Amino acid sequence: MTEPISRHTVNEPSRRAFLSRSTAAVAGAALAGRLAPSAFAAGSDVLKVGLVGCGGRGSGAAVQALNADPHVKLTAMGDAFADKLQSSLAALRGHPEIGNKVAVDSEHQFVGFDAYKQVIDSGIDVVLLCTPTHFRPAQLAYAVEKGKHIFCEKPVAVDGPGIRSVFDSVAKAKQKNLSLVSGLCWRYDYGMRATFEKVLEGGVGEILAIQATYNTNTLKKFPRQPDWSEMEFQVRNWQGFTWLSGDFNVEQHVHSLDKVAWAMKDEPPVKCTGTGGRQARTGDESGNVYDHFSVVYEYANGVKAFCNCRQIDGCDNDTSDHIFGTAGVCDVFGHKISAGNKVTWKFKGSKGEMYQTEHNELFASIRNAAPINNGDYMTKSTLMGLMGRMSTYTGKTITWEQALQSKENLSPAKYEWGATPIPVVAVPGVTQFV
Q1: φ, ψ for residue 174, nearest 5 deg
Q2: How far is Cα 5 from Cα 15, in angstroms, rounded to an integer?
Q3: Domain that residue 44 falls in
Q4: How many domains does the chain have?
Q5: How buried is 426 (Cβ within 10 angstroms: 0-12 exposed, 13-18 middle, 19+ buried)?
Q6: Is 328 among the domain residues?
Q7: pLDDT above 80 for 28
Q8: Distances from the Cα of 102 to the Cα of 66, 99, 112, 238, 372, angstroms
Q9: Residue 340 and residue 196 share a domain
Q10: pLDDT at position 44, please?
Q11: d(CA 217, CA 425)
Q12: 56-66 pLDDT, tens per residue?
């Protein structure tokens, strides 16, 4: 909702740059164009898309969605803030490749905490859920209730009640034959797909351990303005507040945790133990999130995943994952497997453009009446992030079941602009697991 167009780390390909760069998207549109259209939504050949959350991520997702199919229009937009909506709408209308597919009149521009309901109820077929993480469970539940196909950004919850709600929505989406595509984009990268296929068929032998690292810079902050209430300040700076983002072990590191989960066939870890804190983030203007985490996840078969992430400027950055097995080591981002000094396998094909591929496959599934549902892994990977945060905040070892059944509810007392409590920073050994 409040992120800039550029990605918040130089180590990860830009998913928002599609507002100015979408060459790969054109190829995706051509592919979608060869799909035989089918009837849906009042018998129309045009798929109507609604965007909820008009920040950089939402704007990028809208471009990708409109490039994924030749017969699609953006007809409704919603955001908590009018300025974010208008900025996004202007950029989309002016986009050289998809501007003619933007058909959002003044009556279909919705602002406020309930804007998602108005977008979903406006007659759309597909909804793009791209707001801060906290709002995802309620929005996903409403979209499924109303029978909409969904692109759902990662992660999907910030607490136990939220994650349980999402598990329920995922099951209902399956029952209704709705497509639900997750923003855990590496699962749509052709190089990653080939790499994990090789790992899962035994390319490294029996997996012994996994390392996942996501060390990057701090995130942009939006200085407090005189006319902002405390609620507005927090929502505009949502990545700095645990109740809105889940902290960055959930919001950002979920990409790394999802690759760990992928390697482990999406079987959940039994427990985890984490450490972390705040060294560079200080003061109320930094919210209450940490700036570093180190979490060890343990699996029933004895495998341990050593997962580290950091958001501090002036440090060496590293985004890498390695899978260690009895027959070799997989350099995940290098798309290769080595035994000693010998490379035994390496992917050499086209990686594609994963952010576009997500939407190409979503819209193809709708056209072909062959629903995709990424709900199981998107929810489990989010819960991995949550249990790691819970362990780190409390200083306790937390089991999968404890995290799933956690009673901690981070929701505010009310959703309205005005005064709201300033969240405290968790202190391991003092903060209690709930």
Answers
A1: -65, -45
A2: 9
A3: 17-186+355-374
A4: 2
A5: buried
A6: yes
A7: no
A8: 9, 5, 21, 28, 25
A9: yes
A10: 53
A11: 20
A12: 999 999 999 99
Looking at the structure, tell me whether residues 138 and 89 fall in a common domain.
yes
Backbone angles phi, psi at 32, to 5 degrees: -60, -30
pTM: predicted TM-score of the whole model, two decimal places: 0.91
Radius of gyration of the chain (CA): 21
The rounded mean pLDDT for the chain is 91
| Per-residue pLDDT at 182 | 98
Task: Residue 115: give its domain's CATH number.
Answer: 3.40.50.720
275 belongs to a structural domain: yes
What confidence score (pLDDT) does residue 283 get?
84
* 360 and 393 assigned to the same domain: no
Q: Same domain for 273 and 387?
A: yes
| pLDDT digits 0-9 by tens, 415-427 | 999 999 999 999 9
For the segment 161-183, the average pLDDT, to the nearest whole number, is 98
Whether the predicted pLDDT of 4 surpasses 50: no
Tell whether the model's pLDDT for residue 5 goes beyond 60.
no
- Please indicate, yes or no, whether residues 196 and 135 belong to a single structural domain of this protein: no
Q: Are residues 207 and 141 in the same domain?
A: no
pLDDT tens digits, one per residue of 369-388: 999 999 999 999 999 999 99
